[in-house]
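Before the break, one more example. Copy the sequence into your notebook; we will annotate it together after we see the structure.
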Amino acid sequence: MKLSLAIVALALAIPSATYAQDSTAVSKGEYPNTFSSGSANVSPFTNQSKRFNDWSISAGVGVPLLQSADLTSIKNGNGKNLFGYSAYVSIDKAITHAFGINLQYDRGETRQGWFNTKNAAPDASAVGARTQYDAISLLGDINFSNLLRRVDNHSPYRWALHGYAGIGTIAYRAYQKDGSNKQTLMTEIKPFQLGSLFFQAGTGLKFKVNRRIDIEGRLMYVVTGDDEFDGGGDAYSAINKRSEQVSDNFFNATLGLSVKLGKHESHLMWHDPLQEIYYKLDVLANKNQDIEVCKKGDADNDGVCDDWDRQLDTPAGARVDGAGVALDTDLDGVIDLYDKCVTVPGPVENNGCPVATTGPVVETETKLEGIEFDLNSDRILPSNTPILNNAVNYINSSTGSYNVIGATDTRGTDAYNQKLSERRANNVKNYLIKNGVQTGKLQAVGKGEKDLKYPECEPATKCPEWKNRANRRVYFEAK
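Here is what the structure looks like once it is written out:
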């Protein structure tokens, strides 16, 4: 029985050990060891990157104590304090920094009842028992220290709390010795049978001695699922009728070593991704200290550092481009801050507005065409901007004043169209004043649908849309 279990465990362990050191780093960039990670490479934190050792071999010894049974190893009414022995060896694979899988082989002997079976029975009614067991199990390993590590904990660590749980197959021989001092084999269970399944779970505290060796203390609770494990005999024997439980369970306290395999500096289960992030942030912070933003300051307070400001004396309040130069939209040499006609070029002497070079503008030039509007809208269209900018030039070049006349097509009521035409005229008037025309030179007039450019478009359905659009307009008329 023992030989067969050992052969199975060895057969599973050899392939694992063969591939344990095949990890290769994907990055050659190095940074100082942060101890908690020990990694010498900065690359994406994935198991595929193989920056860490992820295999190890563990072994340990301990003391099993049968706690829930008809014959116990603890002085609680069903026995005295009797200590057995146990040992384990496992092949451990880390999947992530917080989870791994262990293939474990356990061997041990529990002692229970009122006396050690190596000794003579103290009286005729005393019963002692011992159980030799061998087990193979597959355990999940959760690294709680990494899983629950606080994000504000910058310090490296050498202690780690682990949790284990898994199932396996157990084989055992249970012996009983009574007052006649005769030792009898009561139960024998072979491995890999349905009745040999068992469950174990517990916790362990690891201490990192160095990059290769860990020390761990474990406390596992083993649920055998069998009422005959304690040496009490068959399920209906007098001893097994003393308590109602159907599973003999025991604690197994062990102390062991883990040897980490591989050629890398750090093992995956000891790597803290947060620590690596903190290191990178510290590196960036140190680099930022070497960079002085606005080393020469910002003398004109325009938001552009003097290091790359092409105009160091920008007037206060002026808008600037990315090089710190004050904006001059119409490129007339007068910056927008001082330009009375921002979008129309003009000389500096006239505050950026055009001046009259000839006499008054003739009537035909003032009746500008093409200032049109969308249906039921008084919004100035982008296509109207060039015409309106020319109007600024014309009106400023004239000594007279002008009516800004708004009109509509024939759709809608007379009252609605009248108000719409007034809004159109006022919007155009406000645009001209904003761009440098004196307020006293302009008066907004709305004529609604009474001033059609194409009178035949009454109703609007009689005309193509381009004629109706031409009726929706604003034009200028000298007073």
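The radius of gyration is 47 Å. The chain has seven helices and twelve strands. Try to locate both features in your own notes.
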